[in-house]
Specification:
globular; alpha/beta; 18 strands; 7-stranded mixed sheet; 383 residues; 28% strand; Rossmann fold; 5-stranded antiparallel sheet; 9 helices; 3 domains
């Protein structure tokens, strides 16, 4: 298994990407597609099963490739994810001995996702997911990772939105709101009893209501997002006087929920829709400022004292100018929230090459049944 959680083998001199296996097993596979560099295959028979193998709850698990690990026990999934973090850390000398805590499990292993993006078949209008290896559509009538409200839309649109190519469904787990984009159309689309084409929904995190535009980022696992915010809040031990920067702030979840514990909060985000959401979300909080701009640009020009910085970049990680700004501003604490292990390790290595010490990393299972992992890294200024 590599650092991305992919399972690889070799056969006849070719590298084989195996979907549906577990390290150490003997299996029979079906070749799905041949690429110039490797062969893509999936398990069709398990000859010698791992003790960690379980029966997938979903009948589509082997064909849609959205749940890469549904055949693996949840306890072992958590171990695999921690091991992935440790393995990538080992590639950088400056962070290879970092303390990695056990993966924080998700309270829900199924039905946790508040956001889905579905593809639509050209001929019949089937709704489902595109297989990652074959690139063919795998129609599904129910996705066990999704909230029930999303599955209601999936069922109602099956073979009734011919002419569309994709649509997304988002749900406010704490509010009951639902956002379907774009407006549904096609064969039977106009007759669907589903509201669609809206601009935003409302979601609640730790009791606070957030507006989220369709183009704004929001964590897909609401309950686990709440636990992550609580963990960061408790770990920072804010006294009410600190100046806190929330970079790559999105709709302001960290900024808003940590504002009662800080003196001043500056949230930086480059998405206009997210900044507008953030301003609405921060109404009533006179110590929160939403700044529209790229984090690397705003931080490079920032010249005031700052105590704490939260960095929550996209999968590509922090811009080099953000890392340089951290060394110049020298905040007492940095929290790095990462959804990609490779870019996280690169950013951590750059930060500890500066004036910071990496205290520990907390993997957070935001995406059960998949090989994806969120990580929260805690750093402090070296005295």
């Amino acid at each position: 298994m590599n650092e991305r959680g992919e399972l690889w083998s070799e056969h006849g001199g070719f590298r084989v990407l195996v979907e549906g296996g577990i390290p150490g097993e003997s299996v029979t596979v079906e070749v799905l597609r041949r690429f110039p560099e490797y062969i893509g295959a999936r398990v069709v028979e398990v000859v010698d099963a791992s003790a960690d193998r379980v029966e997938p709850a979903c009948r589509y698990a082997a064909v849609c490739t959205g749940c890469q690990w549904q055949h693996v026990s949840y306890e072992r999934q958590l171990q695999f994810k921690r091991d992935m973090v440790i393995d990538v850390l080992a590639t950088e000398d400056s962070v290879k001995d970092a303390r990695v805590l056990p993966t924080l499990p998700s309270p829900q292993q199924l039905g946790y996702r508040n956001h889905a993006r579905f593809s639509v078949g050209r001929k019949l209008g089937e709704v489902g997911y595109v297989n990652a290896i074959t690139r063919s559509l795998a129609p599904v009538d129910r996705c066990l990772l999704m909230h029930d409200s999303i599955n209601e839309v999936l069922k109602a649109t099956q073979k009734r939105v011919k002419g569309m190519t994709q649509f997304s469904v988002r749900v406010g787990v704490g509010t009951g709101d639902r956002l379907v984009q774009p407006r549904l159309k096609g064969d039977g689309g106009e007759g669907l009893d589903i509201e669609s084409g809206g601009q935003y929904l409302r979601e609640k995190i730790l009791g606070w209501e957030f507006r989220v535009a369709g183009s704004s980022f929001f964590q897909v696992n609401t309950t686990q997002a709440e636990r992550m915010v609580e963990m960061i809040r408790d770990r920072l031990e804010l006294s009410g006087s600190q100046i806190l920067i929330d970079a790559y702030a999105g709709v302001g979840v960290f900024a808003v929920l940590l504002a009662p514990y800080a003196g001043r909060v500056i949230a930086i985000e480059d998405s206009p829709s997210a900044v507008e959401d953030g301003k609405r979300n921060a109404e009533g909080l006179d110590n929160v400022e939403m700044v529209l701009g790229r984090s690397e640009q705003v931080l490079s020009e920032f010249d005031s004292h700052v105590d704490t910085v939260i960095l929550d970049p996209s999968r590509k990680g922090c811009h080099p100018d953000v890392i340089a700004a951290m060394s110049r501003l020298a905040p007492d604490r940095i929290v790095l929230v990462s959804c990609d292990v490779g870019s996280m390790v690169r950013d951590l290595a750059a930060l500890v090459d500066g004036p910071f010490v990496l205290e520990e990393i907390q993997p957070v299972d935001m995406f059960p049944q998949t090989r994806h992992i969120e990580n929260v890294s805690f750093l402090r200024l070296e005295v």
